[in-house]
Amino acid sequence: MVKFIDLMAGIGGMRLAFEQAGADCVFSSEIDEKNQKTYELNFGERPYGDICDINEYDIPDHDILITGLPAQAHSSIKNGKMIVKYGTLLYEITRILQAKQPRALLVETTGSLSHSHDKHINEMINVFKGLGYRTFHQLINAKGLVPQERNRVYIVGLKDAYNFEFPHIPEQGPALKTILEDYVDEKYTLSDKQWLHIQQRHRHPKLHARLADLNSITRPLLSDYIQNPNILIMSQNGRNPRRLTPRECARLQGFPDEFVIPVSDVVAYRQFGASSTVPVVRLIANEILRALKKDERLESCVKFTSEEQLLNYTKDIIGKSFKEIDKQNILQGNSKDKGRLGKVVETGFYGYQLNNRCEADFNELGIELKVSGFNKLRDGSWSAKERISLSMINYKKIIHEEFEFSRLISKNRKLLIIWYEYVKDAPYEDFIIRDFQLYDMSIDEPIIRNDFYSIKQMVVDGLAHELSEGQSVILGAATKGQKGQTAVQPNSPVPAPTRAFSLKNSFFRGVLRDHVQGIQREKRSIDFVTPEGFVWDKLKPYKGMSQMNILNQFIKRDKAKGIPKNVSKMVSDRVVGKDSELSIKHEVFSKSNFLIKNIPIREDNTPLEKATFSTLQISDFTSPWEDSEWKRFFEEVTFIYIAYIGLKDGQELKNGDRILDRIFKVTFSADEVEDFGKTYNMIKKAIDEKNIEFLPTASSDINGEYKLVIAPKGNAGGVYERFLEDKRETCFMLNKDFLYKKFNEAVTLY
């Protein structure tokens, strides 16, 4: 399916038209909050706000950009060249076109192709031509499709040599009476005062001309209709004339009756008066889609008839830099958008036209192309740098999908992954492609299927806003789009962050490691036991026993030697398995961030000890939070806490006597991970300014402001000063109140 973005979207008239034509909207922007409300209720997602605040590289890839632009001055002449003025709407559109390079664009604007309007429209056309678009423009009157005179100029831009023709619009269209409601509330009838005012302003014959002819068409609907009803009023037998209702205005613009109008009449008149005429845009959309389909790929594209042919061809990419294969200069500029690397491979090496179709890149073989980076570690081994993003999660559609027939599987069953070596601070064009592999999702299908239905169930339960990557094993639900972007979920009024299916970074580290080591991965059996289920199956026979009683089942210890401090760890190592053994006993532990922790609790789940993580060092804080390893860790990690009762009936149970009770599965939501980012940024500030006062420590956070704090690993004094000297004596620790909350909402196995 062809993808488009909807900018300065209003209430979504252009989007509705393109969706009716069969295209898929992947991003929208609208600054007006009331317009956003109407848009969200009808399309299930709230548009981003001011287009000026949007990072162009955060916008998803798309085939078509659609927008409305006023016919006004957008540029100036400097040294004989036209310069698009910074801050104008055309400037904002231009920077997005330059960054994302969609195959087509559609702009609707007011004007008449004459006088001053002609100058501003030509200005837009010249800008689009300068960006490599072949342009077509036409003044279209909507009267052949809806019962109103409504002239708008439409500008179409197409990359490459696509042919395009504007659609034929009939001269004669429907009459006004076809859009009228059967019953109209009395409030839409003009008051005596309003009717008198109109009569005084417009004497015969002008007054008669103001009364709409139900068998003909009417004057254009304008956004100030509520202030000026005289432009469109209808006579009523024996009564004052009336204005159109909001629903009739919607019909006048070609909106279906299913389109929800959640705002007041005053706002609705403004919204529909300013909107696009849906049937006109739909016909133009059909022609744009038809033009794009004429040449989905470049003439130079390589066509493959077998996997073997594709893989043999791909061998030639090894050792090449992105600069060598960037034939369309996609990497020009200083953008950090890694998505451009995939476009370079797609166009420069395989010769495919840029596309955002729903089917796989090598659709005839059922193979999707992915380009991903790896870090080379000190020992020479490779570690996958990022998750593999798959397809967007449509909250409204997933509740009706089955795994085997889902868009996820239809597009991503097999992935051809091109691996490049990531070098910090190096330009993208200098990155070298080192290897490639074909990953078959069916190998891990039982786990991925389980993850899919786990994510689906969260959406069905109205909990899409609580999704996190850590809740699943291999297939994650990763946040996607600009920070703060949300979508409507079907069974809850709470907006949910937009998310995409992804294969976790921790999982793909294992996949890449096996590939480099030449390990042939075997297809899994249909039976799949979750890691937490695996752990509890091992522990369950010992529920209700003390730590030492369990340990004595495996080793006999001399009581005179006392209780070892790490008795809980000794128990879990013997019952469940040492960390190094878990990957052998249960493969998922080697492919995912599942970590086992031991903790004493009260009977009400209150933790009695702090929950700490691995030792911190200054090099952990060199990257911004968004790109940090710690952010990725907290997004993907799943903790399995083995809980021992340490306080019973008011009596403290000593270490060794604590009773095995249950396990908790703990993951972190997107909001919680962002809260952890506050801690990270404060530590980074303390390092940059060499000032420990900025450190959010367990002792300084008396008000519980931070869910995550920095804490000593031991009891030595001066540990925070030594942290700034890069002495590894500190660690992250979860706030106890926060951990108590997590235990009470966690998946618990008894």
Automatic annotation (TrEMBL):
<dbReference type="GO" id="GO:0004519">
    <property type="term" value="F:endonuclease activity"/>
</dbReference>
<dbReference type="GO" id="GO:0032259">
    <property type="term" value="P:methylation"/>
</dbReference>
<dbReference type="GO" id="GO:0003886">
    <property type="term" value="F:DNA (cytosine-5-)-methyltransferase activity"/>
</dbReference>
<keyword id="KW-0489">Methyltransferase</keyword>
<dbReference type="InterPro" id="IPR029063">
    <property type="entry name" value="SAM-dependent_MTases_sf"/>
</dbReference>
<protein>
    <recommendedName>
        <fullName>DNA (cytosine-5-)-methyltransferase</fullName>
        <ecNumber>2.1.1.37</ecNumber>
    </recommendedName>
</protein>
<dbReference type="GO" id="GO:0016787">
    <property type="term" value="F:hydrolase activity"/>
</dbReference>
<dbReference type="Pfam" id="PF02976">
    <property type="entry name" value="MutH"/>
</dbReference>
<keyword id="KW-0808">Transferase</keyword>
<keyword id="KW-0378">Hydrolase</keyword>
<dbReference type="GO" id="GO:0003677">
    <property type="term" value="F:DNA binding"/>
</dbReference>
<comment type="similarity">
    <text>Belongs to the class I-like SAM-binding methyltransferase superfamily. C5-methyltransferase family.</text>
</comment>
<dbReference type="InterPro" id="IPR050750">
    <property type="entry name" value="C5-MTase"/>
</dbReference>
<dbReference type="InterPro" id="IPR011337">
    <property type="entry name" value="DNA_rep_MutH/RE_typeII_Sau3AI"/>
</dbReference>
<keyword id="KW-0540">Nuclease</keyword>
<feature type="domain" description="DNA mismatch repair MutH/Type II restriction enzyme Sau3AI">
    <location>
        <begin position="350"/>
        <end position="451"/>
    </location>
</feature>
<dbReference type="GO" id="GO:0009307">
    <property type="term" value="P:DNA restriction-modification system"/>
</dbReference>
<keyword id="KW-0255">Endonuclease</keyword>
<dbReference type="InterPro" id="IPR001525">
    <property type="entry name" value="C5_MeTfrase"/>
</dbReference>
<dbReference type="Pfam" id="PF00145">
    <property type="entry name" value="DNA_methylase"/>
</dbReference>
<keyword id="KW-0680">Restriction system</keyword>
<dbReference type="InterPro" id="IPR037057">
    <property type="entry name" value="DNA_rep_MutH/T2_RE_sf"/>
</dbReference>
<keyword id="KW-0949">S-adenosyl-L-methionine</keyword>
<dbReference type="InterPro" id="IPR011335">
    <property type="entry name" value="Restrct_endonuc-II-like"/>
</dbReference>
